[in-house]
Write a structure and sequence with these properties.
This protein has 392 residues and is α/β, with parallel strands linked by helices. The chain is built from 14 helices and 15 strands. A six-stranded mixed beta sheet has the order 3-8-7-6-4-5. Strands 12-11-13-14-15 form a five-stranded mixed beta sheet, sandwiched between helices. The model has no long low-confidence stretch (mean pLDDT 96).
Length: 392
């Protein structure tokens, strides 16, 4: 099939809409269920590139959770411990494949942003992964294939209208890409840059030591940034994204946003948060929202005298500033990537407060030495990859 008609474009008033192959060839995708829209396909094609590159680079299965053409989370298929299962609302006895673990991690990075996400899987969707997806609010999925039972599980979502897309993993896009803005055609070479550990060889700080785990997480950050709306900064720990700051005009705002999300992910590990006394009839999205509010600046909106009973079986104790500070002070081993250079050391100061110990960024700022000096102040190791990763 050369083209596919869509209901509308980015908005209902934008008609007609379609995807098609301008060279007359066949589309590399097949819709197995549902009717994906314009934004769905933007998410699908960006997220597929991300997970397929992660798989190619690491040899591990990978998954991504996309919203509005940027990843809310991306992860490799490492097993989940008991704490992560509780954080991600997965029963302790539920059987998980590596692919299911990858998606649970990708979805779990920022569950508020992942509500209604588009999913990408690097490998054929198996039954354990489909069972996790079945219980989440999501718009659709793209994968190179589906086990028959997994496909039936997915088809049952949203009253039978869940979007399921299969992509040919052998598809290679043209070297030159085009898009139109305001009736004017833009042309550029496709960003086929290969990201791997060689980008971490130019270490510019006094600390020159990068562990294999740090190298893996820094590469994961760079590949994620390659498909994130710029400006962007990405925090990674233990093979999964834990905070993305995307589409900000200021680099420090990217770092603050990503750091805030990473901090919330860390705080969700606290026993006081894991043990919040939710009512049995409160759905997962409502629990996620309540946790987000509880950890935010206005916890009274979730645990105030007039509202707590809507969500909890008893009124929770608030999380004190001292408890929050003490928990975050113990966080370490976080990696950070930036899609362009840091112009000031304030980005490092903010990253350090979220437990960052390793950084990769392009370098090239007139204030590079100030940024390097700030890293040296805290013993942070930083590599200059020398290549910008803007994505628009």
């Amino acid at each position: 099939m050369n083209e596919m008609q869509l209901k509308y474009g980015c908005n209902p008033n934008q008609k007609p809409a379609r995807i098609f192959m301008a060279d007359g060839g066949s589309l590399p995708v097949v819709v197995l269920n549902g009717k994906p829209g314009y934004i769905n396909f933007l998410d699908a094609f960006n997220s597929w590139q991300l997970v397929s590159e992660l798989k190619e680079n690491t040899g591990m299965v990978a998954a991504a959770s996309f919203k509005h053409v940027s990843p809310a989370g991306a992860a490799l298929g490492f097993p989940l411990d008991d704490v992560l299962r509780r954080m991600y609302h997965i029963a302790p006895d539920m059987a998980l494949s590596p692919l299911a673990c990858a998606y649970a991690r990708a979805r779990g990075a920022d569950r508020m942003s992942s509500f209604g996400d588009w999913i990408a899987l690097s490998d054929v969707c198996d039954v354990p992964t489909a069972k996790i997806i079945k219980n989440e609010v999501t718009d659709g999925i793209i994968a190179p294939g589906y086990e028959p039972q997994a496909l039936e599980i997915l088809k049952s979502k949203k009253g039978g209208n869940y979007n399921v897309v299969s992509i040919d993993p052998r598809y290679v896009p043209a070297a030159i890409e085009h898009k139109q803005v305001f009736g004017i055609t833009f042309e550029q070479g496709r960003n086929d840059l290969k990201i791997d550990g060689r980008m971490l060889e130019n270490i510019v700080t006094e600390n020159k030591t990068l562990s294999d785990a740090q190298k893996r997480d820094l590469v994961l950050a760079l590949i994620t940034l390659k498909y994130t709306q710029s400006n962007s900064v990405c925090f990674v720990q233990d093979g999964q994204v834990i905070g993305v700051g995307a589409g900000q005009q200021s680099r420090i705002h990217c770092t603050r946003l990503a750091g805030q999300k990473a901090d919330l992910w860390q705080l969700r590990h606290m026993p006081k948060v894991l043990d919040l006394p939710f009512r049995d009839d409160v759905a997962k999205p409502n629990r996620d929202n309540a946790i987000d509010v509880y950890l935010g600046d206005t916890p009274e909106d979730a645990i105030g005298e007039d509202v707590w009973a809507e969500t909890f079986s008893r009124r929770p104790e608030p999380l004190s500033a001292e408890e929050r500070k003490a928990w975050l002070a113990g966080v370490a081993g976080v990696c950070l990537g930036s899609d362009a250079f840091f112009p000031f050391g304030d980005n490092i100061e903010r990253a350090r407060r979220s437990g960052v110990t390793a950084i990769v960024e392009p370098g090239g700022s007139i204030r590079d030495q100030q940024v390097i000096d700030t890293c040296n102040k805290y013993g942070i190791v930083m590599a200059f990859c020398g290549l910008r990763l803007f994505h628009h």
